[in-house]
Backbone:
């Protein structure tokens, strides 16, 4: 099959959406499908992939690391027509999602949309009228969903939220998987050697973005409480984003060191990230707005137990007491759960063994097989009833 992926977020930007697309692309290509990516262009980034079409773009005002596509590509109509795509799969209801919607309608191609993000939880980026912005965002995304042929939700909980927005389109629940074979080995000493962390220290690891929705000030406050009874611990934050300086100031205001206590490692290339997972002792996560939290499964694939705040998406990735511990959004509760896992070897090794099993269940190969079946069903039914497409309003 020929599959067109339209996305507002792709390499070299780092996010769960980008990782999900890249992993699915790799597995679907291995299964014999042809994948074409349509994404924004990034300055100074030299393309190394085939079948990637870049739209001119400009830096986002709220996140300069992210670029916003200008949905104009003079020859794209001919390109899409000549590709004869079997499926168009969009990963956002915004700019590039609308471009994909346009071509799906124009050439009668089945349209599938992965609902990666709780868009209504990101209205803090709007300077005023948050309640109104949330209402408009929900209506906008639900309208888009109802113009698609099928929706992929990373979790049952998110599928329920989508349904609550009066979306009638069929939904399949397919989490983003991870290529577990790439997480089976790494340098167990890498973090300690790279950042001069004492060998005696236990390392807590967070991977994500330095943005408000990741709730990192809460995580740092919880870590300060962990240090009271577990002084030989270090929190490593692998992330970049607009809140970096603000978060570093918070660390210093707590009397913690940016060298020994809380290490900001920035974004890392994949090989280094695997080493980071492999050389940490525990994965910690405080985000409240996830649709899944792909980094949770990455950590589990490397054999890391998880301690996380019990929130949407996270609840279905982590089985409380089985492969990790979940807490309420309370700094003391999170700190106590972290300390419990660090200080109980029997509990730690049980969670560790179960985390690897969970990752195997959610491998990118297994998830790609499920997505492939959705593609095949959608393409077959669309061919049987070629005129049965949803009406798209301009």
Residues:
């Amino acid at each position: 099959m020929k599959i067109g992926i339209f996305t507002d977020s792709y390499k070299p930007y780092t996010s769960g959406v980008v990782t999900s697309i890249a992993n699915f692309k790799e597995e679907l290509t291995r299964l014999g499908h042809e994948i074409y990516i349509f994404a924004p262009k990034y300055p100074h980034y030299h393309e190394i992939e085939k079948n990637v079409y870049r739209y001119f773009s400009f830096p986002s005002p709220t996140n300069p690391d992210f670029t916003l596509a200008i949905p104009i590509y003079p020859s794209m109509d001919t390109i899409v027509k000549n590709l004869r795509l079997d499926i168009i799969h969009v990963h956002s209801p915004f700019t590039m999602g609308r471009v994909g919607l346009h071509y799906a309608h124009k050439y009668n191609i089945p349209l599938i949309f992965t609902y990666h993000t709780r868009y209504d939880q990101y209205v803090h980026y709007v300077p005023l009228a948050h309640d109104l912005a949330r209402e408009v965002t929900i209506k906008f995304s639900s309208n888009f969903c109802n113009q698609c042929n099928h929706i992929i939700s990373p979790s049952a909980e998110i599928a329920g939220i989508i349904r609550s927005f009066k979306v009638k389109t069929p939904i399949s629940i397919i989490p983003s998987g991870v290529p577990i074979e790439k997480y089976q080995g790494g340098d167990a000493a890498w973090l300690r050697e790279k950042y001069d962390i004492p060998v005696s220290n236990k390392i807590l690891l967070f991977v994500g973005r330095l943005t408000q929705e990741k709730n990192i000030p809460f995580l740092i406050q919880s870590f300060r409480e962990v240090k009271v009874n577990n002084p030989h611990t270090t929190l490593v934050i692998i992330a970049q984003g607009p809140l970096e300086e603000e978060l570093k100031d918070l660390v210093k205001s707590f009397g913690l060191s940016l060298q020994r206590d809380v290490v900001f490692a920035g974004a890392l290339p994949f090989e280094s990230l695997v080493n980071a997972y492999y050389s940490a002792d525990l994965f910690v996560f405080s985000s409240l707005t996830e649709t899944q939290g792909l980094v949770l499964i990455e950590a589990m694939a490397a054999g890391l137990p998880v301690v996380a705040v019990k929130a949407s998406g996270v609840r279905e990735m982590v089985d409380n007491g089985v492969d990790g511990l979940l807490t309420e959004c309370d700094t003391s509760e999170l700190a106590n759960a972290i300390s419990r896992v660090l200080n109980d070897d029997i509990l730690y090794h049980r969670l560790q063994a179960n985390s690897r099993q969970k990752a195997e269940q959610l491998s990118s190969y297994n998830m790609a097989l499920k997505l492939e079946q959705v593609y095949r069903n959608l393409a077959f039914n669309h061919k049987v009833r070629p005129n049965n497409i949803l009406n798209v309003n301009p």
Summary: DSSP finds 14 helices and 15 strands in the chain. The longest helix spans residues 364-384. The two ends are 28 Å apart (CA to CA).
